[in-house]
Amino acid sequence: MALRNPFSIFGSFRSLHLTQQCLRTVHTESKRSRSKPAPVPTPFVPNVETFLKLIGRDMSKHASKFPSWDKLFSMSSTELRDAGIESAEQRRYLIRKRSRFTKGWYGPGGDLEHVVDGAAQLRVMEVPFKAPATNTEVRDSTIVDLLNHSATLTPGMRRVIVNLPPDAIEYKHDPSKQLKRFKGMKIHNSVYIAGPYLQPIAGTNGSAAIIRVEEGMWEDKLGHKVDGGERRRAEVRAKRRAEERRKERA
Predict the structure, then answer these.
(1) Position 23 confidence tier, pLDDT thresholds 50, 70, 90
(2) Where is the stretch described as Disordered (predicted)?
């Protein structure tokens, strides 16, 4: 008896082959990710507890499940589940935030160098200004800011944001070192320092501020569903109107 569709069996074998190939690829990628060395802790993120506190979503309660920094960045999703992180959503979130940190994609404060007990100071200071040599340097935002507010500057100087220990007052500029830009931090009106989670220091007129490790500073906020979400919104609102009309007639 002839098959109705002799090609269907070959299609099934081909589908099975592709599925097995995909599984092998996923398994290989998983092994590669686990074999990568853990990133080096930063002054702002020195340990497991601080990392979990920064990424929020109540991940701090799982700190005891990670005996070391290397373990935090090497455990697979299955190992995380076996360790007691039962929510798949939380496991995916942790793995995503681990990957970003490994790539150097820090949140506010992650790129600071002078941190003491989870706190660091950012201050607007004047440093010697070297005239730009190329048109590319002229387009630099720092130089544009300098040109726009040159009347408020000391001649031959420019304003930059520097990172100091929390109790430091003086800053000694080293011309041999390249000045660093800190994510999310900027100079407002050529005088004030602006950025997320900054706490101005009294008596500095807004030119200096402290940033401290806080719960959820790097958290990816979840969206808020209104009336059941986009798909069910019309249905939910229609039911509500019908219920209101029923109550009015009663």
Answers:
(1) low
(2) 226-250
